Amino acid sequence: MIGHLNGEVIFKESNSIILDVKGVGYKVLAASDVLAKAHKGSPLELFIYTHVREDNISLFGFLEAQDLKLFENLIGVSGIGPKTAMNIFSIGNKDQIISAIVKADTSFFKAVPRLGQKNAQKIIIELKSKFGSVADLDLSGDDLSGNEEAVIALKGFGFTTKEIHDAIKSVKKEGQKVEETIRLALKYLGR
Length: 191
Fold this sequence. Notes:
Elements: E1 4-12, E2 16-21, E3 24-30, H1 32-37, E4 43-52, E5 57-62, H2 65-75, H3 82-91, H4 94-102, H5 117-131, H6 148-156, H7 161-171, H8 178-188
């Protein structure tokens, strides 16, 4: 299975790119954030989900490992395939998708082609417990205030409330970006 590609963009279409990695061109289906960064001749590093079917092998590319993890969570929901999950990424970024799941906002998913109300509800029901809510975590202390996004992201990786609390408390610094907090917390938690 292909899990990571680092190469040069040689071709770009409306929903995919061809990435040249040491002379081999890989066609990678991608969401709008990847396509926005992909310019012919520019280097690009992607985390890859390889989908194998009897008649087809498809690669789905993401800029961050957390996006790939969310994608894998989405396709783990019965009735949601990789193309539908990629369409979800085309209407919103990781934070917006997780927020919609946590808030049980089915209207967010209405813009996704071929995703009805029933499947939107399934996504929320099956994934809400993975991301939980930030309400059950005490964020009132100075070291934890303003870290709701980090908490939601870490919940998505399956960490417990206590693990998240301890990790954020030990790695958080003044003025630190959310991405840096998540990265350091994951390192702290050994992932």
